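Chapter summary example.
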Amino acid sequence: MTDIEGWRPSLGAWPDGDAVRFRVWAPTVQSVMLRFEDKGAPEAHAMERDPEGYHTARIEGLRAGVRYRYLLDGRGPFPDPASRFQPEGVHGPSEVVDPAFDWTDEAWRGLDPQNTVLYELHVGTFTRKGTFAAAADALPAIAGLGVSAIQVMPVADFAGDRNWGYDGVALFAPSRAYGRPEDLRALVDRAHALGLGVVLDVVYNHFGPDGAYHSQFSPGYFTEGHHTPWGAAINLDAPGSEHVRGFFFESALHWLHEYHVDGFRLDAVHTLRDEGDPHFLAEFRDRTSAGRRAGQPAPFLLAEEHRNLAVVTRDREAGGYGFDAQYADDFHHEMQVVLTGDRDGYYQDFRGSTDDLATDLRQGWLFTGQRSEFWQGARGTDPEGMPLPRFMHCVHNHDQVGNRAFGDRLYHETSFHAFKAATAVLLFSAATPLLFMGDEWATSSQFLYFTDHTPDLGRLVTEGRRGEFAGWRAFSDPRLRERIPDPQASETFQRSRLDWAERDREPHASMLRFHQALLRLRREEPVLRWLEGARQHSAAPDEHSIAVRREREGDTLLVVARLRGAGVTGEGAERLLAPPEGMRWQPVLTTEDGPFVLDSLPVDLDLEGDLWCRFRRPGAAILRAAPRGRPGRGT
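The structure predicted for these 635 residues follows.
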């Protein structure tokens, strides 16, 4: 095998010189037998059991590529819980994989967590081919967009050929639906060569409903002491939990070392039920930081947490879990209600108020302990003192698009112009922004919920999906719910694939240029980078508009966004719009500039004294404070 500096696996199967080592945790099993399924390999081999219930074997003469399963006290055979690849699917044999790869990313030095822009993608729908190799071929376009990293939806293998990835069961094995392990390594290597980081979405709060054999190896993977939407919780604090926690830590370390990923998005961490000390998330930070690859910074960690808990992103030294950022969905929800008036589901907690949007931008999230009608209780904690990049904001992500009945995006409901205004606010403000694949050119593709389960399980999924909307006013009629696309239908998956040819056609090309311009500004303007002394202020000049001001070391930039309708924004009503003393505002760009729109309706700007803007439709203007008398337009 190829030794990987600083990394020695302790679970699964790995080449070791002229042999292969195997190790699996099965504490309630007395006899574990390896059964091989390749010609020329021994038919079976007994493993040795240690007092903690780990079974090990080192078998001479085996090579990478051999396929195997485990017999547990004669039961089975079952695939390896830490399998590195499932070439025949999650119910089939596991394959020994050599992690050797001709990496070319020696110069790559990871992500700056204070200044990262994320681009979320789903491998299966990102390109027409839906493979790791095809995704790698598309990366130059993403690098040209100007983001910092791709955030890859879960790739751990799942049952069937189509899935969002949150039904994964083989948490060490890239899905064979997208290619082989070496194809994923090549994707990461290509990303690093292009200056893109790779943040991998991982699901450690449950196993998928089909193909998870972990309880066959030990019922200790689960606990009845806590319950989740998927049933019994993963055991993080009951007897034996140290081994379960170790399994997930090993999974993460394997992705860091064997695939060179730069960090993780942890799914729905509010369902990681742990009353112990340290909390699983805190130990996850400690383990992945201590076990990172040589020469790399601590991995970038992003938590999906809907409760607005400041402890998640508080520094470890201050008693927090030490994550770099967490989802702060209040920004998305308030923006959605401002632009569309939605009030179903969790949107009922939001007023559609630009004042509330300004508060959200100022403190990172809106709910800091107020009552939530949707959650029927207090929601949120006070984030005072938390740096703004520790809040992840978005206009879209896979959940906010895919969990809508028809997978429609914001500009499908409103207009390109309103979407541009919202995007200008997102990419100007200091929170860590996330773009969802295809947003940069306003793709016409939907992103729908899709699965490929067995017929019986699939029927339950389809019924459950439509039943989720029974409480929504728009779907009170059962006949309307029947129109919701069937997750099991192949067509639902096909409709979710991006059409890359659109990028070169209008009006999509104009939208792409707009995103590129905003991201170039964010990257090149020092005042838009979160460095020492950076400050952000936000306010609502009126009920239709939002203004955000960024300052650092004497530099000032301002965005004014009209989110609804036409009208005048400013008129001296908001001091945030006043330039610094001795300065005047100078336009940098507007949504109505020629490269960004086909039918320009210019924004009228009164730059003398306090700013005054007349918008003929939703849009945004970005301005720079410059000394009075300096001529010309901004960059």
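To summarize the output: The longest helix spans residues 241-259.
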